[in-house]
Amino acid sequence: MLEAYRLALLSAIIYLNVNCAPSPEHIVYPKLLEARGINGTKLLHIKDGLTLALEKLSVLADSLVFTENNDGVATKTMINGTELEENLYQDRGKMAAVSVEEVDDTIQVMGVLNDKLRIAPLPLMPRSEEGHLAHRIYEMEPSMNHEEDDADTLPEQQARTKGRTRSASMKHVPDPFLVEVHVMVDEHHYKVFRRREDLVTYLALTIALVNMRYEDTSSPNIQFLLTSIQKEHRFARRFVEYDIDWPKANRTYADANRTFDDLLEKYGRSPADITV
């Protein structure tokens, strides 16, 4: 269990700490089309050549626990996850997850359009002649290089043994198998969100993208469910060192090992299946 916990946490740390550099932006005016897609899905036109077939997503617990510290006292708030999911959609074919809200007779879109493109509203810009809200599309490219063959592999005989053991133990596992996720958010992350709902929406869309990548799992099919969020103050460990891209300057880096040790000490016995 500890190994699985460590692997899940390590994967999350890598994911959350990948620095992305934005490329040139494009201004677009998204709109919902009157026509419907297959199975009655909504069609969201972003720009020529990019239209999303929207289907509702479900990644939040019905009652989501949101914990924050007020003057050193932990305060828990129950959030209606069903209500927050009303504006959340996905397009599995394009690996997209977006929030679509109606604002003053138009729509406001935020989220991920594919593995590189992101979209965010520009409420201060003039609207289109049709009255649609301006948005920016920007490309995010990872600035960290990941080796594809970093993962260790088990010897063949050991892998076969583990496979037989796994098959025997999976007979009584529900399918789909819902993995409850508790997310700890440090101030360096949550301070960019003006509202609590914006933070929850961001995390929900992130979980939705993870679920899409697990859709091909079987016996059982694994899906992740966000059940609780906790805001922490100065939890992530950091250190200042020379910038590897610009040696004459300093840069702040995440100290993943020390942060992991602190996280394991505080949340190692969390009732959730995974804490990130």
From TrEMBL:
It comes from the Eukaryota. The keyword Ribonucleoprotein does not apply. Residues 144-169 are annotated as: Disordered. Keywords: Hydrolase, Metalloprotease, Protease, Signal. GO terms for biological process: proteolysis. One of its GO terms (molecular function) is metallopeptidase activity. Residues 1-20 form the signal peptide. This is Putative secreted metalloprotease. It comes from Ixodes ricinus (Common tick).
